[in-house]
Amino acid sequence: MAGTFAVGSLSVFYFMPMLFAVDYTAGVEEKKNAQIGSEMSTPPVKREVVDGGVVKPEIVVTHIATPNPLKGVYMSACYASAPSLRAKLVKMIDDTELNAIVIDVKDYTGTIAYNPTDPKLSETQGTGCRVKDMQEFVASLHEKGIYAIARVTVFQDPYYTKAHPELAVKRASDGGVWKDRKGLAFIDVSAKPYWEYIAALAQDAYSIGFDEVNFDYIRFPSDGNMKDIAFPWTKNTPKAVALENFYSYLSQTVRPSGAVISVDLFGMTTTNTDDLNIGQVLERAMPYFDYVMPMVYPSHYPPNFNGWKNPNDHAYAIIKFVMTRGADRAAADTTTVEHFGGLRVGTTTPAVYTKDVYSRDKMRPWLQDFDYGGNYGPVEVRAQIQATYDSGLSSWILWDPANKYTPSALKP
């Protein structure tokens, strides 16, 4: 989901608020109301499902409105491909306050995880897991009032770079395909033929029933030999500008289909104002997506970030600090000068970056429910959820690559 890299800590002093007790008896009626209020946003569409040449009965494709608040979890394609496993996760959603799920439709291997209906996508293979009954599965989620989000890993794509090396990030030394420390290749951010492929996949996922498309790995690579790297398509275009060009293309191409779209950003985009050398700047993403989803896992912040020797020991304080900054930046008025670590947003002379005013709820964080650098149990997970609320936000999604979550952290 995200790589780690060291960035200088911010010299901001912050007091950790007390973590108050949480009422675990609330939320039942809220879940019911969220499901009742999930209206179809598009007319029903009947679609045949073809599996191995056998045409199955038509499925009525519907879409439900985005829950507010949205409370979700991630499911990998491999997990979704096993009915017995995914049933356990769906039951957890049924039994708790959760009302949404994010499912891989293209993962880090470049594999499209289902049988697409668009002929332009039909030849895509790859080595990852595939969900033969994805359309039926999404339909079954809708029957339970569960909002379905398709996750698309974008520029990290070893399968597509092998098939189309002319679009890949290259080694500067010999023109070969560049790979990161894990041996994974990337498509050059400005390779426009690939943009069309990604947009076609997003539209196809929406056409089979997904309500929202979530784009991950929209960034330049960072973990590898950065001294021997070249971007033949981006060339000298600033990384932040190149990414914004892609954001704009997605907005113009995918949104007209009716799909809600969201983007994953590194957690430090809420507090940093540079592009982290990967091209991601919070204000540049906001205009083009319905939701911006920073991956604010405490374990991924460097030691001494904001004065905390080990950020894992301050799950509540980290999320409260970084998501308050992000929400403040979303809601900043262009007629008011605001300072965010050196970025001045406003119309007074000179404005570094002007922006529209957005709802704080445009920010929807990914929260940590996996053990990395520390133990994340019910206390740590619930602390992050409470910190999200205390930042003035209402929605969140839990991430665990192993799909092993902590139900005891959730309201029943």
Textual characterization of the structure:
The structure is a single chain. With 412 residues, the protein is of the alpha/beta class. It has a single domain (28-409), classed as Alpha-Beta Barrel (TIM Barrel), CATH 3.20.20. 26% of the residues lie in helices and 16% in strands. The protein contains ten helices and twelve strands. Helix 6 (192-207) packs parallel to helix 7. It is globular and about 55 Å long. The two termini are 28 Å apart.
DSSP strand content? 15-25%
- Could you tell me the number of beta strands? 12
**Known CATH architecture:** Alpha-Beta Barrel
| CATH third-level topology | TIM Barrel
Q: Would you state the CATH class?
A: Alpha Beta
Largest sheet report: 8 strands, parallel
**Could you give the order of the helices and strands?**
HEEEHHEHEHHEHEHEHEEEHE
How many separate domains?
1
Q: Give the count of helical stretches.
A: 10
Rg result: 21 Å
Ends distance: 28 Å
Please describe the topology of this protein.
Elements: H1 28-36, E1 45-51, E2 54-61, E3 71-75, H2 77-80, H3 83-95, E4 100-106, H4 134-143, E5 147-153, H5 158-163, H6 192-207, E6 212-216, H7 239-254, E7 260-266, H8 282-285, E8 291-295, H9 315-331, E9 338-340, E10 343-345, E11 366-368, H10 378-390, E12 396-399
Parallel strand pairs: 3-4, 3-12, 4-5, 5-6, 6-7, 7-8, 11-12
Antiparallel strand pairs: 1-2, 9-10
What can be said about this structure in brief?
With about 400 residues, this protein is of the alpha/beta class. It has helices at about 30-35, 75-80, 85-95, 135-145, 160-165, 190-205, 240-255, 280-285, 315-330, 380-390, and strands at about 45-50, 55-60, 70-75, 100-105, 145-155, 210-215, 260-265, 290-295, 340, 345, 365-370, 395-400.
